[in-house]
Amino acid sequence: MSSIFFDYKLEPNIIFEDKTVKDYDLYDLKKNFRGTIYINHPKKKVALETGILDYIDQFDSMFSYIDEGNNETFTVSCDFYSNSLDYLYHEDTDELIISESNSGLFKISCNYSDCKQSYKKFRKTTLDKLIILFPPLKENSAFKKHFIND
Prior knowledge:
Layout lengths: L4 E6 L15 H7 L1 E8 L2 E8 H16 L4 E4 L9 E6 L4 E6 L6 E5 H22 L7 H8 L2
Antiparallel strand pairs: 1-2, 2-3, 4-5, 5-6, 6-7
């Protein structure tokens, strides 16, 4: 069983003003679906506050980079200042270290395989719920390209 869990809370007052959701590009999707992603680890609880889809995109990139052999990588939020994250993967121990790089607010050490499995479950559940809450996402080409076509 995994020792790291992901969860999220979408801001309840999300309003889409200038465009319909089905016309959003990737930047609009990442910017407008605001909320908080929580990483729950036995020794540390972390709240990442900006865009839900922004962080899903960041974690997708991180897992992809590590799976391609890049054991030291980073991600930057689309707002360029919130919780930029550094990742260090130790292949010999399957340990992943996630740290906040702007202010050193947190550092989490966990098993990479467990983290990836927990994240995949979180990702699927979250995206399914967003589609239920915002049905036009099913028609959004950027959403389908970056979040559905795995």
